[in-house]
Every structure is written in C-alpha cells, then in structure tokens.
Sequence to fold (484 residues):
Amino acid sequence: MDAISPWLTREHVVGLLSILWPAYVAVVGVWIVLQRRAPVATLSWLLSMAVIPVLGLVIYYFLGPRRLKRQRLRRLRSRRRSRVRGSMARLKEKVPQAPERLHQVVKLVAAATNFPVSTADRVELLVGGAATFDSILAAVRQARQHIHLEYYIFEPDQTGLGLIAALCEKAREGVAVRLLVDALGSKRLARRHYAPLEAAGGEVALFHPTRLGRSVRPVINFRSHRKIVVIDGRIGYTGGVNITNEEDKRIQSDAYHDVHVRLEGPVVNWLQTVFLEDWSYALDYNRKTEPRDWEALLPELPDGDQVVQIMTSGPDSNMEAIHRVHVAAIHAAHQRVWLTTPYFVPTEAAMLALTNAALRGVDVCLLVPEKSDSRIVTAAARSYFDELIACRVKVYEYHASMLHSKTMLVDDMVGIIGTANFDNRSFRLNYEVCAVVYGESFATKLEQQFYEDLQHARRVGYARHQHFLQRLGDSLARLCSPLL
Fold:
C-alpha cells in the first residue's frame, strides 16, 4: 500500500479526472443529442449529466425520453388495412358531407398510427366504475371464444378478485382468457392472486417487469397505461376506469369519478390489434411462446352506422399520435373545445392550441380535479390557470371527488375518450389508447356528461388569491412538467 500511495497524489487524481470527465460528457452528450429531442430538454439533460455525472446518468436511464423498439406483430396493421379497403369506400359514401377539417383529422390519425377509420354498431358511454364493471362482467359471462384484458392498475381487492373469479369460471368452460397487466401499476397483484386463473387454463403476462437478465427494464417510464377489454373480437372497452375498488362508489363513497366506452362492431378489430401487439411484446420479454391464431381473433364484421377510429401512442414511436391529434383537433375547432382531464400538464404546443382557440372565439372549457391524487401534478396544473384564463379559457375544478375522466369534445364532430391524460407522460412516455368517435350522436353524450360534471365544479377566477409559498410551489412543480 505504501508503494502504491505515492502514485495517488492529488495532482494525479485531478489529472485523471480532467481526462475522464470531458470524455464522459462527450460520450453521453453524443448519446443524448442523437435522441433529437426538443433543444431545451436536451440542454437540460446535458447540464444534469455534467453537474452530477454518475447520478445524472442513472436518472436519465430511468426517466429520460428514450424510444423502445417494438416491431413484432406490426405486420397485423398492414394486413388488416388491406382487408378494410371496401369498408372505407362504403364509409365515404355515408359521410360525404363531412367538413374537410374532419377528413384531415381522420387522415392524421391514420397516418400517425396506421389505424384506418372504421365503424361501430354501438358506442355506449359508461359513467362511473360501477356501471363499467357491471357491463364488463356481463360481457365476460357471455363470452364464448376468448376474453382479452389489459390494465395499468388491477388491484387484488374485492373488484379485482371478483373479476378474476369470473375469468376462472370462463377459463374452465374452455374460453381462452389472456390477462396482461402493467408490472408497476399492478404491483400489488401477486402470483398467488392470479394463480387460480392460470390453473384454470388462463394466461397472465406482465408488461415490463423489473428483472436482471438480458436487459434491465425502466421501472417508472414506458408503462402500459392502457385499459382494454375485448370479448370474442366483437365487444370492446376502453377508457379511464382501472380494476380497483377506488373506482366503485358502491364500495367506496369517495370513489373516482370516471368514464369508459363500450364498442361493438368492426372497430373492435383495431382495439384487438392493440392488445395483440402488447401481448406479443410481453410474451417475447417474458420468454414465452405466443399462439398462432391471431387471424382467427380478428373476425370480419359488417359495417356499423357510427364512425370510430382507434388511436394509440407510446415510446416505441416518435409520432406522438395522441398528442398530435389532440392539438390538431383543437386547431380544427370552430365552436367549442371541452376538455376533461385528471392531470393537466400541457406541452407548449397543446397550451398554444388551447389559448389560440379561445382567443379566436372558440368556447374552450377545461375541467380538472380540485385535488388530484398527486399534489405535485395539482400544483403544476394550477401554474397554468392564470395564462389560460387571461386568454379566455374557462377553467373549472371538480370538487365532488377525484375526477379521473379523460375526454375531449370538439364542436359536434369529434369525441375523444380513452386512457391518455393531457400531459407529457401520456403524450410521450407511456403506452396509451383512445377511441376517436366522429359524429353528433356520441358528441351529444359527451356534452350531456360535461354539463352534468359542471354541476359539481367551481369556475376558477383570474388572479386568484395565493400566498407566496403557494405560488412558489406551483412554479417549482411546473419545472417538473417533462416528468409528470
């Protein structure tokens, strides 16, 4: 030790660091720059890496805006598109008078997601977890061929275990049951909870479980925030409702206020495609063998009367489809934009779209929870209120319970409902899915629900009174917007 110590002088250490630190910054800098993100975000990450070298690299790995590669089963979209060309031609005959701006929204969804416009026989708005769970359980009990479920949160409580029991019964009857849950969102769902389903013949997979092996998956970002149920390829569900007691007012009086949508008809094929892609990806990661009956799970169905399009986004694509479509739809609005979201942390483009629409005379209303289940998100959202109100946006805070609905209504032509919040996490970091419903029928349902929700909301005034610490807290929370 004495022989080595003379070599470890302060001058040697400083000299070594003077070589290693610039090399580290150069290598990591090239890596980050090649991600081609917004200049401000890129510069922020570069500064973080330089100031806190090792810790900064760890933070970037788990929280940084990177892309994942998911190519398996993408061929399904191309094959399915070729099979629906006749349906698309008939669809154009049904809506020849649709305004050009509506056709542009349809084209944008198709171009950004590779999901074409489709139709539905029935589009039902389900209000509240109780109505949603009852509808799903009824559909599960009537299933004859297969039941597919994908959830961000699937709790092993009364609601979750009750659904697992129903799935076990169907699996024992010979119905193919596949359950995909996000490993982080459903972290309380242990193997002992779904073991009876596997014993009955059902299959369970985890989305991005954390484990050592050929790779270490990020544990915070890149989650499957989707909520999907597909029954026999003919009935589909999506929306904001997770499988948990917190969504059912029959169990908890302060349950979340939420909405879901039930779809029937050809559009369910596309919701099925989303599930199959996620299922195949999860099986690949879990090193399981996937079945080969995908085409049989996508039955040919006659055209319906309502025009619907499935829309997805996730970190495996740089399109940010849900973000793009929300912004484009707002720009296309002539009369109104009514937005309901539990987490409002807008991007610059989304914020500009909302304020521009309001300034040009569009009735722009924003409904958010008075208190969300995240204090930092609530604070960040409030930091935008004064700017919105100054630009004539009407801001309301829902106070009856935790508002968890995720919808947007544009004029009488576009209704969006799904899993995506109006924030950076949903737009860029997580896997999301939405149904875009065109036409007055569904728009009227969203309109009625929005009016009903406003009965339990208070309008926020401009320059509301806040003491210094509140304003400082909101402003600091806003700095975290890219991670919220």
